[in-house]
Write a structure and sequence with these properties.
Layout lengths: L4 E6 L10 H10 L4 E6 L1 H4 L9 H16 L6 E5 L5 H10 L4 H5 L4 H10 L7 H4 L1 H10 L5 E3 L5 H17 L9 E3 L28 H9 L20 H9 L4 H9 L5 H26 L5 H28 L8
Parallel strand pairs: 1-2, 2-3, 4-5
């Protein structure tokens, strides 16, 4: 019997890239041990992309295909679209009635993100963006998740969620929600082609669903040691993007490659060729799986509709408890 429940999700904002791969591979491992809910966070996407709602439907299909190709199993995990479970909106509203505004205003990333978008010519100072940590808390607790996979930078958001839980349970004298705990899963930090964080906005990403030709083209543009002019010059693999990729996707050869680089025995071109092969070897089984999935154009929607059914069943149970605790349970109501 799986005792703990995990909730995690992604925004459908474009093609997934290699920076997402270790997260998905963790998701695949989680489903063996936990009750897993994996959510397409399309309402969250609209907190910043509210002027481009049309992108989310096709992006949802592409993203979920990537989930499935990596091994997320709809028989073991519940995959669903956030906006299809309307109970999220009801709980978010009810929680907004008891959550102090100051809790939202102290979110450590709020002002930075507002400024970043302002520099891009976009005003995101909306009620929805200010309240997105509360919507995140809603997503977690409506399924009574006990574990939430997070990075250390996301711990303040989870602590906010825990504060909301404590306040609700205290106000209504019922332990409706458990306090979710952080699951600090190990995630490989994959740099972008230029050494910065891999991001579509930087244009430095390698798509997760790709092909050998695209992989080769992308790897050829990777930044290496700028001080290494000639093949026999000693290199510095610790500052080389290609070396960082080898550490993740070619671990068996990393010691040999680093020694060869430092000793000027292997050049950047052959090093990149070996990375191309390692990436293709790692990703080919996933690509083949996705090509099989794409033969049925309705499969993703069938998976998400079944996930919606299961997610709504759990969310409705939770909302019955919430309404009873808050005094909204009307006799005879269904």
């Amino acid at each position: 019997m799986k005792k703990d429940t995990i909730l995690s999700g992604m925004r459908p904002t474009g093609r997934l890239h290699l920076g997402h791969l270790s997260v998905l591979e963790n998701w695949r491992r989680f489903q063996e041990r936990y009750n897993c809910y994996y959510m397409v966070a399309n309402w969250h996407a609209l907190t910043t992309a509210f002027d481009d709602p049309g992108l989310t439907v096709e992006a949802t299909k592409e993203m979920v295909l990537d989930w499935l190709m990596v091994g997320i199993d709809p028989e073991q995990s519940t995959l669903f679209v956030q906006s299809e479970v309307k109970e999220h909106a009801e709980l978010d509203l009810l929680l907004s009635l008891i959550t102090p505004l100051s809790w939202l205003e102290r979110c450590p990333t709020y002002k930075d993100q507002v400024q970043q978008f302002k520099e891009q010519g976009k005003d995101i100072t909306t009620h929805g963006f200010l309240g997105y940590p509360l919507l995140m808390a809603t997503d977690i607790i409506i399924y009574k998740a006990t574990l939430v996979p997070v990075g250390e930078d996301q711990l303040p958001h989870l602590e906010f969620c825990r504060e909301v839980v404590r306040r609700f349970n205290h106000l209504y004298k019922k332990e409706v929600f458990p306090e979710p705990q952080p699951y600090l899963a190990e995630v490989s930090m994959i740099p972008g082609l230029d050494g910065r964080k891999m991001s579509k906005s930087y244009g430095n990403e390698i798509p997760l669903f790709s092909n050998p030709k695209e992989i080769k083209s992308k790897v050829q543009t990777m930044v290496t040691d700028p001080d290494r002019i000639h093949v026999h010059d000693p290199g510095h693999p610790e500052i080389c993007t290609v070396s960082n990729f080898h550490k993740v996707f070619n671990t068996a050869a990393i010691e040999e490659l680093e020694e060869g680089c430092k000793g000027g025995k292997i050049g950047c071109v052959p090093c990149k060729k070996r990375l191309v092969k390692a990436l293709i070897d790692h990703l080919t089984p996933y690509w083949e799986r996705r090509q099989e999935l794409e033969k049925d154009p309705d499969y993703v929607w069938d998976v998400l509709n079944e996930g919606k059914r299961r997610a709504r069943w759990k969310a409705r149970q939770t909302m019955q408890e919430v309404r009873a605790a808050m005094g909204f349970e009307i006799p005879g109501s269904t």
